């Protein structure tokens, strides 16, 4: 049996997977949804530690697939690097990824760092970034947007500036980089650069909320993907 450890992205919480988890359970899989949204001035390493702690609770036999959405692409790769023998596959969903020392601000286009720092200084007491509107994540349906806006929380600035710490162990784990179309950032290139197979899925950045059924199918198929091949 497969266990999916589903790690949400910035400004989100475990609720981001609420529409996907029942579909995975119906297919016979297990799930864990670590919470990175707790209040406080946390950094990327704190979040990776939260995921490692979740991984250490898995005792069942079977495959363990570590899934990171958006910012959590960096988090799950650092966590997997700490527990490489536990993970069968990594799946990035519109996920940020890079080598040792990479961070959100180092991978993002020019201007991103200034934008988030300014937002934190003006609106977040210097350390937290207020949540953007739902349409930034491609959520435009009125009801879905209201549901999302009511749940999002500020994101600690350090999660975007702290560089990842990777020993290289993570590179032994096969990976799939699912990138949504139309793209917001070059998530396919991030995945290819770390050696992952890429798979395009039509839908917005928060595809797990807007299109949970095709997204769940991708996750369920992920264990059959082979490293180094590209699927479009």
In words, what does this structure look like?
The model is unreliable at 226-232 (pLDDT under 50). The protein has helices spanning 21-26, 44-55, 72-82, 104-107, 112-123, 142-149, 158-161, 187-193, 207-210, 212-221; strands at 3-7, 30-32, 64-69, 89-93, 128-129, 155-156, 175-181, 197-202. α2 packs across α3. It has 232 residues and is α/β, with parallel strands linked by helices. The protein has one domain: Rossmann fold, CATH 3.40.50.1820. Helices cover 34% and strands 16% of the residues.
Residue fraction in strands: 15-25%
The CA-CA distance between the termini, in Å, is: 27 Å
Integer count of domains: 1
Strand neighbour order, sheet with most strands: 2-1-3-4-7-8
What is the N-to-C succession of helices and strands?
A: EHEHEHEHHEHEHEHEHH
Query: Can you say what the CATH homologous superfamily is?
Result: Alpha/Beta hydrolase fold, catalytic domain
Which sheet architecture does the biggest sheet show? 6 strands, parallel
What is the annotated CATH architecture?
Answer: 3-Layer(aba) Sandwich
CATH topology: Rossmann fold
Helix percent reads 25-40%
Radius of gyration: 16 Å
Averaging pLDDT over every residue, what do you get? 94
Instruction: Tally the beta strands.
Output: 8
Main CATH class: Alpha Beta
SSE class: alpha/beta
**What shape does the CA trace take?**
globular
Number of helices: 10
Low-confidence stretches: 226-232
């Amino acid at each position: 049996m497969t266990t999916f450890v589903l790690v949400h992205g910035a400004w989100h919480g475990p609720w981001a997977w609420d529409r996907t988890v029942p579909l995975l359970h119906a297919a016979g899989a297990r799930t864990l949804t670590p919470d990175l949204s707790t209040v406080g001035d946390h950094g990327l390493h704190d979040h990776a530690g939260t995921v490692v702690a979740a991984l250490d609770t898995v005792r069942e036999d079977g495959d363990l697939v570590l899934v990171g959405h958006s910012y959590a692409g960096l988090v799950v790769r650092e966590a997997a690097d700490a527990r490489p023998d536990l993970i069968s596959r990594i799946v990035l969903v519109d996920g940020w990824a890079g080598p040792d020392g990479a961070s959100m601000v180092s991978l993002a286009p020019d201007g991103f760092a200034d934008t988030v720092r300014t937002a934190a200084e003006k609106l977040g007491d210097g350390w937290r970034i207020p949540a953007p509107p739902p349409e930034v994540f491609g959520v435009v349906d009125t009801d879905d947007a209201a549901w999302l806006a009511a749940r999002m929380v500020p994101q600690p600035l350090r999660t975007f500036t702290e560089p990842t710490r990777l020993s290289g162990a993570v590179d032994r784990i096969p990976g799939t980089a699912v990138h949504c179309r139309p793209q917001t950032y070059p998530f396919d290139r991030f995945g290819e650069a770390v050696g992952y197979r890429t798979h395009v899925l039509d839908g917005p950045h928060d595809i797990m909320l807007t299109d949970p059924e095709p997204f769940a199918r991708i996750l369920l198929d992920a264990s059959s993907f082979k490293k180094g091949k590209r699927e479009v």
